[in-house]
Amino acid sequence: MTERQSLFAVFSVIYLSECLLWVRRGGVLFRRGLGRWTAKTGSEAIRNDRGDLHWAWPLPPFGDVAVSHGLPFSIGTTGILNATAAAFHPSGRPVTQAAFLRWEDIRTVEAAGRSLRLNGSEFWKSDSTLEPVRLGRLLGSLRRLDAPALEPALRTAIATAFDTKRIRARLAAAESAVRHVRTASTALAALLFLVAPAAITRFGWLPPLFWLVPGMFALTGTIAWMALRAHRDLYPDAGDERFRLALMLALSPAAAIRAVDPVQRPLLEEFHPLAVASVLLEGADFTEFAAPTWRDLRFPRLPECPVETVPARETEQWFRNAVITEAGKTVRAVGQDPDAWERPPAKSDPSHALYCPRCQSQFTKAATACRECGGRALLELA
Q: CA 152, 156, 162: angle at the middle one, nearest 5?
């Protein structure tokens, strides 16, 4: 391998590393390459008990990515639990230090970087700096409400996470905001991966560098400025995050090529994955994601609540029932019947007599519970 080939190989590896996205467990990655959107709940390659490493589409026009979390903890009329029964990930729920607080015991709510702190202690940790700010504002407004006003406000907050009109509006606003960023990023990729190798091969190193290097940094600066404006339009309150993003894009050509990713990634994080899927996925893709998600809501992996106190269990159950109500509305609005997803599956073997209502694994009469779902009781196959 020649010196030039080695240099471009190294830059290619650096660029591919910018295509990697870390998504904490509990989030769902929606991504699109040249075709339709797909939903990814777990990585097939690299993951641990806290999250997964995913790929974004590496070729122009670089595709789209968005991470969806919804409300990542359970809120109820009694208090707040920093966990939910939802287990989108194949390996289970996010790892967390379970905690429950009554509303009257919450004195302070603050966002510190990627952490949401209640009463000065870390209550929950995100993989973005925007989410703790948004959730902190929500909890701050809820804790000041009296009992009669609290339950309607809680239901409104949960319904907002399923607002498909807002999801479509966000997507349209993002597409308009990043349109020119995407064009400039494609131009930078063409300069570095096509024009630069051809010019250096034809004329050697020195003459092309006099115009390649200024051209490269002119494009990265332009991309940083345009991404800054797009970020400000989409997330007006994220000043610190915006400064870090602009600095990274201005100094790193590889990051500048992927400038659309960090702008789009937090776009839909406040919406429930099932609502996002109803907008982005179609036909069999939607059913493939929505059916197990619905069954996970209706028959969660046991134990349903990590805190063994009556108020915590009541909060988890109240929140899950409210989410099921909104999820049912969302699914029926796109012409699907969620009740059909709870029906017994067809027998995969004549010896099978029981099945798990959550994962729909089938068992013989000797089985008593589904270990993969935490010991959930089995039902009879029709």
A: 150
Residue 34 falls in which region: left (phi positive, over 0), alpha (psi -120 to 50) or beta: alpha
Q: In whole angstroms, what is the distance from residue 346 CA to residue 94 CA? A: 32
Cis peptide before 94 (omega within 30 of 0): no
Contacts 24+ apart (CB under 8 A), 130-138: 130/235, 130/238, 130/241, 130/266, 130/269, 131/69, 131/72, 131/266, 131/269, 131/270, 133/237, 133/238, 134/270, 135/71, 135/72, 135/111, 136/109, 136/110, 136/111
Average pLDDT, the chain: 91
Residues 59-114 pLDDT 10s: 888 899 999 999 999 999 999 999 999 988 888 888 788 899 999 999 999 998 88
Distance between the two ends of the chain, CA-based, in angstroms? Answer: 64
- 362-363: strand order across its sheet: 362-363, 354-355, 379-380
Q: What does the pLDDT look like over 264-307, one tens digit per residue?
A: 999 999 999 999 999 999 999 999 999 999 999 999 999 999 99
By CB neighbour count within 10 A (0-12 exposed, 13-18 middle, 19+ buried), where does 28 fall?
buried
Alpha carbon distance 26, 93 (integer Å): 6
Among 35, 33, 20, 39, residue whose Cα is nearest residue 63: 33
Residue 337 has pLDDT above 70, yes or no: yes
Confirm whether pTM is higher than 0.85: yes
The encoded tokens of residue 11 equal: 């830059």
User: If you ran DSSP here, which 8-state letter would residue 25 be given?
Assistant: B
**CB atoms closer than 10 angstroms to residue 132:** 22
